[in-house]
């Protein structure tokens, strides 16, 4: 029967479902293993990148079941927040881009679109039609009884308990805090709500309070406040929109966008007058530090949406400003239209404020010349700027004009200088992002300061507990451990609420909703009991209920018996053995996960391991749902089968490495599985004895190799190395079998028994990766599925290093003969194989005994008169053998010492004659009177000389 993935997979899916095969309940047999993966956010469909995320933990879950563990692998659905609401709003507005994604990327039928016009209707569609269906097609071994959404009433009771507990412990606090704020939704947002700018960070600008002659403030933003003494002029966009506004009782002039940003950042702002940028050009403002007047010049490069839209220029120390000033001088005559004297512009010269080794008086000019920067558009300008800024920060020393700060490096003085002049009233502050940030709803995201509830991740005791958890965590790969520690170090306060959206209301202030990253920190505990809560009214799931469940009877005045019963199940599964998640979540979700477990649960229930996932590419480019650059699992499964999809995703890279989905490579993997299935079917259909018959050395060789494959696969899966494990079980074993079929007589009972035995073991090794195909074949072979047969153990009795080493000599000689045939183009009639003379064997034994030291070996062998007579011949042989011995391990050398090399090749003569269709003769060096070509003398121990005619 030919390989038909669709029918095989449908049959096993039905069987698993009917038998409830992956429904895990507490038992007393074996260890409990609990594996989790971030629950999906169904604001769109599932693509193959998601498929890999969920399949890696499934492989580990299946592996642990094969090892005899009781394994829980659950899934749920994260709907908290606003992305789904935003998607619904875009759909209802008929936005073409949103409609295109739904219709063209995710194949939503036209007559179904109206069902998506409510948030939970939208979520349910993608849960059922994409994620759940895709996961079931992939064969994920999920306990579906435990699924829930974060909008469920009982789940909200669980989150309510969590946040009341944290508040009672003083780890929640209310205060003014910078947040990411969607101006379209008028709502704080977090990383998972963003379309662009997920990596953006808050960045505080210093506002230097320049004044005009009327006392109006024109604040200019800078990240380098110490350079204020070097300001020579200011720039505005002459075509930009500016406003005169009352800001906290003072009159300011800023861009129109800046006025809105300042309002969001807790300033009282009232716009008094709208201004065109051209109205500001030519005005003079006073530097609050030097009290010098500087002129405002026009510049089209000014971005009115960045900071205040009024830019101070420091051309001595900023390559950008230096180039801008030179270009302003070149068009100085055009300044007359603004009432500016061109000669005044030409007279502006850079003002140095620090010295730095390796640069002249005007460092920016030197940097521009070094990088040969020609204009503002020159890509080299950014590189020149970054190089100079870095050097000045670490090495630049302020000049005498800085008084008490003179002679100090910028790195040591910047913050003190800034704070000093803030206290004097010369500086203020404003926050921006490090890059543009856009909400999933399409709205601009700005920095806002709000009265908000935040988690006190900066609490020293909380940090210390979390660091202790990180120290004991099995971080995979190990180099991620320092990323958790680094995140704990810099984490400060985290706003945990938003104004609206799906999710759990803040229990003591129901105007707010707990935000997505904050309600997804301990939901793993909820998995353990989710399927048993339907009979408990939500209103009865209060603080005492959950205190009893998680802390025991002593934690409540009147412990709830139902909670105590549930506690037994929770206690059976906890802690989480491994969480499998994305590398970019270390800086938020994963570290939050560790924080909350460290605080809310006893140490024995802290997470034990986290495995990190790399990024998925599609034909070399990052996958993007919004751009339609994705492959849907269902479509790939329809074309290739689920086992192929799984095998490719797991075998193309280790989980923490990036992988690239390429159709050609996936098609190749499908062909390999098809050939595997067909070859396995041939083995199954051949008659073979039930009991082990007499075996030949080549059979013992294959069985010995099998033990190494089992060991390698097991060790790899213990460390989540899915690629290493699948490479061993599939490709390495395939190479051994290919050689075996060349070497062995397949008509023998011993060969047929050996092939069936190897196939049985191999199917169980591959069961975590390709569960449909392997279960199908194993049941045909042995009358039970691969997953019920269990994981194979290494049979040490079948490990035979001697037979492996002897066979490696046969294989090596085969390769050498083939190389000669290929190079010479000879069709051999006679192949003569000459093994090394006894004296050469004696030299080999001496090298092994003495060790790979040419001088020491020569000293020993030259004490033998017979060897000494051979002179340079011995010296050359020692050189070769020392290299050979150096590269071989002790066990192999011991086997070679005991081996009769000629006997090894002689035993394989029948094989050589079949392989090369020639008369093959194994001869001792010096035993062939003909010795055509005088080849015999070239023989070296374990590298025989070869002559072909």
Q: Quick one: how many beta strands?
A: 31
Assign a percent range to the helix content: 40-55%
Strand numbers in spatial order across the main sheet: 2-1-24-25-20
Taking Cα atoms only, what radius of gyration do you get, to the nearest Å? Answer: 37 Å
Uncertain runs: none
Set out the fold topology.
Elements: H1 5-19, E1 32-36, H2 48-66, E2 70-72, H3 83-92, H4 96-105, H5 119-138, H6 153-168, E3 172-182, E4 187-189, E5 194-196, E6 202-211, E7 217-222, E8 233-236, E9 241-247, E10 250-255, H7 256-264, E11 269-276, E12 284-286, E13 293-298, E14 311-313, H8 319-330, H9 342-346, E15 354-355, H10 363-370, H11 380-395, E16 397-398, H12 410-423, E17 427-433, E18 438-439, E19 445-456, H13 460-472, E20 474-476, H14 481-490, E21 493-495, E22 497-498, E23 513-514, H15 523-527, H16 543-551, H17 561-573, E24 578-582, H18 586-600, E25 609-613, E26 616-618, E27 621-622, H19 633-640, H20 642-651, E28 659-661, H21 663-685, H22 697-718, H23 722-743, H24 749-766, H25 771-782, H26 786-789, H27 801-824, E29 830-835, H28 838-850, H29 854-861, H30 865-870, H31 872-887, H32 890-898, H33 901-907, H34 909-916, E30 919-924, E31 945-948
Parallel strand pairs: 1-2, 1-24, 8-13, 20-25, 24-25, 26-28, 29-30
Antiparallel strand pairs: 3-4, 3-19, 5-18, 6-7, 6-17, 8-14, 9-10, 9-11, 12-13, 15-16, 19-21, 22-23, 26-27, 29-31
């Amino acid at each position: 029967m030919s390989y038909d993935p669709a029918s095989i997979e449908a049959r096993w899916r039905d069987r698993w479902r009917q038998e409830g095969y992956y429904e895990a309940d507490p038992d007393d047999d074996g260890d409990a293993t609990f594996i989790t993966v971030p629950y999906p956010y169904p604001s769109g469909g599932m693509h193959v990148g998601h498929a890999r995320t969920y399949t890696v933990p499934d492989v580990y879950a299946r592996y642990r079941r094969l090892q005899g563990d009781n394994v829980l692998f659950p899934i749920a659905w994260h709907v908290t927040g606003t992305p789904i609401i935003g998607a619904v709003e875009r759909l209802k507005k008929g936005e073409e881009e949103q409609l295109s994604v739904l219709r063209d990327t995710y194949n939503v039928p036209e007559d179904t679109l109206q069902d998506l016009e409510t948030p939970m209707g939208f979520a349910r569609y993608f849960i059922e039609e994409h994620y759940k269906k895709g996961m079931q097609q992939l064969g994920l071994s999920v306990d579906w009884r435990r699924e829930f959404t974060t909008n469920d009433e009982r789940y909200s009771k669980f989150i309510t308990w969590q946040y009341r507990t944290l508040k009672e412990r003083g780890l929640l606090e209310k205060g003014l805090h910078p947040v990411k704020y969607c101006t379209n939704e008028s709502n704080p947002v977090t990383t998972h709500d963003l379309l662009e700018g997920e990596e953006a960070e808050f960045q505080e600008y210093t506002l230097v309070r320049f004044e005009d002659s009327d006392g109006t403030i024109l604040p200019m933003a800078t990240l380098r406040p110490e350079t204020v003494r070097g300001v020579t002029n200011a720039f505005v966009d002459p075509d930009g929109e500016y406003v005169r506004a009352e800001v906290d009782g003072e009159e300011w002039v800023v861009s129109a966008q800046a006025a809105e940003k300042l309002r969001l950042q807790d300033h009282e702002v009232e716009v008094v007058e709208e201004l065109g940028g051209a109205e500001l050009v030519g005005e003079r403002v006073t530097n609050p530090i030097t009290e010098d007047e500087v002129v405002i010049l026009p510049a089209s490069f000014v971005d009115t949406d960045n900071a205040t839209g009024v830019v101070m220029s420091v051309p001595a120390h900023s390559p950008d400003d230096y180039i801008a000033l030179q270009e302003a001088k070149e068009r100085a005559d055009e300044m007359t239209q603004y009432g500016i004297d061109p000669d005044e512009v030409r007279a502006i010269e850079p003002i140095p404020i620090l010295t730095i080794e390796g640069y002249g008086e005007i460092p920016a000019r030197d940097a521009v010349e070094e990088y040969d920067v020609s204009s503002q558009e020159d890509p080299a300008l950014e590189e020149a700027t970054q190089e100079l800024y870095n050097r000045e920060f670490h090495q630049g020393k302020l000049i005498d004009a800085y008084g008490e700060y003179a002679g100090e490096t910028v790195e040591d003085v910047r913050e003190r200088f800034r704070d000093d002049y803030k206290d004097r009233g010369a500086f203020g502050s404003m926050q921006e992002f490090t890059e543009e940030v856009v909400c999933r709803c399409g709205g601009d995201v700005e920095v806002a300061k709000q009265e908000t509830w935040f988690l006190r991740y900066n609490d020293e005791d909380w940090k210390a507990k979390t660091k202790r958890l990180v120290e004991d965590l099995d971080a995979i790969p190990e180099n991620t451990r320092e990323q958790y520690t680094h995140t704990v170090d810099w984490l400060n306060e985290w706003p945990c609420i938003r104004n609206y959206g799906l999710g759990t209301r803040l229990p003591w202030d129901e105007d707010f909703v707990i935000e997505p990253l904050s309600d997804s920190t301990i939901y793993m505990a909820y998995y353990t009991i989710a399927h048993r809560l339907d009979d408990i009214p939500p209103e009865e799931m209060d603080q005492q209920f959950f205190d009893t469940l998680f802390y025991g009877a002593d934690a409540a005045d009147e412990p709830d018996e139902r909670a105590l019963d549930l506690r037994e199940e929770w206690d059976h599964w906890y802690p989480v053995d491994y969480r499998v998640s994305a590398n970019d979540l270390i800086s938020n979700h994963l570290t939050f996960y560790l924080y909350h477990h460290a605080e809310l649960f006893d140490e024995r229930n802290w997470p034990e391991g986290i495995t990190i996932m790399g990024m998925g590419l599609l034909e070399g480019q990052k996958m993007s749902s919004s751009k339609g650059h994705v492959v849907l699992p269902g479509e790939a499964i329809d074309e290739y089968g689920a086992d192929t999809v799984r095998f490719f995703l797991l075998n193309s890279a280790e989980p923490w490495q990036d992988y690239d989905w390429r159709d050609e490579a996936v098609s190749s993997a499908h062909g390999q599985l098809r050939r595997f299935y067909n070859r396995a079917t041939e083995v199954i259909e051949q008659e073979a004895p039930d009991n082990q018959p007499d075996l030949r050395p080549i059979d013992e060789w294959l069985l010995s190799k099998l033990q190494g494959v089992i060991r390698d696969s097991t060790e790899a899966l213990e460390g989540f190395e899915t690629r290493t494990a699948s490479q061993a079980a599939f490709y390495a074993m395939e190479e051994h079998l290919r050689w075996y079929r060349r070497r062995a007589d397949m008509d023998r009972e011993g060969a047929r028994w050996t092939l069936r035995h190897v196939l049985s073991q191999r199917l169980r090794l591959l069961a975590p990766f390709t569960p449909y195909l392997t279960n199908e074949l194993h049941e045909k072979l042995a009358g039970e599925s691969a997953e019920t047969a269990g994981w194979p153990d290494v049979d040490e009795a079948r490990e035979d290093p001697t037979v492996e080493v002897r066979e490696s000599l046969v294989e090596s000689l085969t390769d050498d003969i083939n190389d000669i045939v290929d190079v010479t183009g000879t069709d051999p009639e006679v192949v003569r194989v000459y093994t090394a003379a006894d004296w050469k064997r004696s030299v080999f034994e001496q090298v092994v005994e003495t060790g790979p030291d040419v001088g020491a070996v020569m000293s020993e062998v030259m004490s033998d008169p017979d060897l000494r007579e051979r002179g340079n011949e011995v010296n050359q042989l020692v050189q070769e053998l020392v290299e050979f011995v150096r590269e071989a391990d002790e066990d192999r050398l011991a086997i070679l010492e005991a081996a009769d090399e000629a006997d090894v090749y002689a035993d394989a003569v029948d094989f050589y004659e079949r392989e090369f269709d020639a008369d093959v003769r194994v001869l001792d060096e010096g035993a062939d009177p003909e010795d055509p070509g005088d080849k015999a003398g070239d023989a070296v121990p374990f590298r025989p000389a070869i002559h072909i005619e």
